[in-house]
Backbone:
């Protein structure tokens, strides 16, 4: 299955001002600056689709993107999904009240969105054992419904040497290992996503 088109749909502050839950959604979540917006751009093969930045805290709203896939099935040649770019967890440099509101809106989305099918938890491959990621993992496992899956995607693997990468793969045999810089692991991630959504 090929991803053939992606476009920005809308931004929302919370689930209340989000688009109708009519299409399956894939949420990209994780620490601020881990590469959520970048991975969405890599999957969609469009550099500036989701705004990425070296300054943490770039993404401040729930951003919805409409994704079109081409299937092998002549009867149903196209299928659709939404990718959802989320603000990072644990971004320290915003005011406490704003941070609390963000977290409320974020967790509200993750907990209550009926059409959310996949949590893609992005983890910096150089720091796979951070408390914040353990908390995210625990939280998502706790709220996850039977129709949902979690994909652990380790980002920035271009920053590891080959023995570090081998060790990481041994430690996390179910992980996906990605570099947005070198475009590694992107097809594997896409396949894992479409397999759950459409059975490939
Ligand atoms: N070396 C390397 N840098 C990356 C990779 N992916 C993202 N980056 C860089 O990491 C920084 C943050 O990327 P973003 O995609 O904006 O991260 P984010 O998780 O969306 O951040 P917030 O929106 O602030 O939560 C940018 O400077 C990217 O260029 C990667 O695979 N390798
Ligand atoms: Mg972002």
Residues:
């Amino acid at each position: 299955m090929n991803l053939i088109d992606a476009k920005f749909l809308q931004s929302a502050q919370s689930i209340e001002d989000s688009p109708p839950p009519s299409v399956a959604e894939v949420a990209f979540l994780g620490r601020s600056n881990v590469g959520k917006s970048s991975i969405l751009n890599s999957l969609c093969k469009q550099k500036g689709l989701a705004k990425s930045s070296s300054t943490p805290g770039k993404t401040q709203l729930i951003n919805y993107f409409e994704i079109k896939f081409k299937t092998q099935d002549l009867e149903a040649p196209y299928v659709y999904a939404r990718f959802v770019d989320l603000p990072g967890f644990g971004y320290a440099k915003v005011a406490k009240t704003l941070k609390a509101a963000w977290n409320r809106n974020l967790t509200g989305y993750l907990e209550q969105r009926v059409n959310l099918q996949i949590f893609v938890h992005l983890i910096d491959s150089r720091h796979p054992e951070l408390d914040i990621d353990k908390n995210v993992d625990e939280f998502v496992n706790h709220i996850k419904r039977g129709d949902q899956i979690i994909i652990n995607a380790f980002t920035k693997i271009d920053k590891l040497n080959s023995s570090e990468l081998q060790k990481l793969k041994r430690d996390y045999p179910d992980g996906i290992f990605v570099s947005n810089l070198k475009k590694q692991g992107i097809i594997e991630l896409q396949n894992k996503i479409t397999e759950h959504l459409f059975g490939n």
Observations:
- The pocket of magnesium ion (ligand 2) is lined by residues 36-37, 52, 58-59, 85 (CB under 6 Å).
- The chain has a mean pLDDT of 93.
- Residues 96-112 form the longest helix (17 residues).
